[in-house]
Amino acid sequence: MFIITHALIGALIGIKLQGHIFLAFIFAFLSHFILDTIPHGDEILFNLNQGNKKDKQKLFSIIVTDCFLTLLFLIFMTYYKHPEIPISIVFGIMGSVLPDALWGMHEHWGFKVLSKYHDFHLFFHRIIKKDISFKKGLAVQILFLVIFLKWIL
Predict the structure, then answer these.
(1) 3-state helix/strand/coil string of 5-23
(2) Do residues 33 and 99 lie in contact, with contact meaning Cβ atoms separated by under 8 Å?
(3) Rounded mean pLDDT, 41-49
(4) Half-sphere exposure in the Cβ direction for 35 (13 Å, CA)
């Protein structure tokens, strides 16, 4: 799933567990794997990472856009919407995106220390063996975003 989708769930967990930043981080971290069991059409991103220079540039553009939107979301949530509990939201978002950051470190730089973690993470992506297109996956994620944004806002 896109980082912004995980971050939204992490923010919601941070809001619900305000004052319990460690729990917000842990539950958000675990939520990442639960969400990754839902088919979300991101297999194309794996393929881009294995492709040529142009494919990797496209992947980089997708990642930068996703991270930028996540940063805007974080600023909005902590500054405008919930300024009274920014630390809980930040820890929820950090916990929810850390699994993909670790996965990316292994995928991009080949950190061998993360090999078992990488396989563990991919296990969740493969629990439901149903491939869907990128467009359908994007629709699923937009649906998640709309539902959970309504819950937060």
Answers:
(1) HHHHHHHHHHHHCCCCHHH
(2) yes
(3) 71
(4) 27
Of 92, 34, 42, the C-alpha closest to 66 is 42
Q: Nearest 5 degrees, angle CA 111-CA 114-CA 118?
A: 115
Query: Which structure tokens are listed for 87?
Result: 């630390």
- What are the sequence ranges of the domains in the chain? 3-152
Which pair of tokens denotes residue 65?
Answer: 């856009």
pLDDT tens figures, 10-35: 999 999 999 899 999 999 999 999 99
Identity of the residue numbered 110: G
Determine the length of the chain: 153
CA–CA separation, 4 and 96 (whole Å): 10
Q: Is the pLDDT of residue 74 over 90?
A: no
φ/ψ region of 110 (left if φ > 0, alpha if ψ in -120 to 50, else beta) reads: left
> Tell me, what's the pLDDT at 96?
97
Whether the predicted pLDDT of 50 surpasses 80:
no
Burial, 18: exposed, middle or buried (Cβ in 10 Å; 0-12, 13-18, 19+)? middle
Distance of alpha carbon 26 from alpha carbon 59, whole angstroms: 28
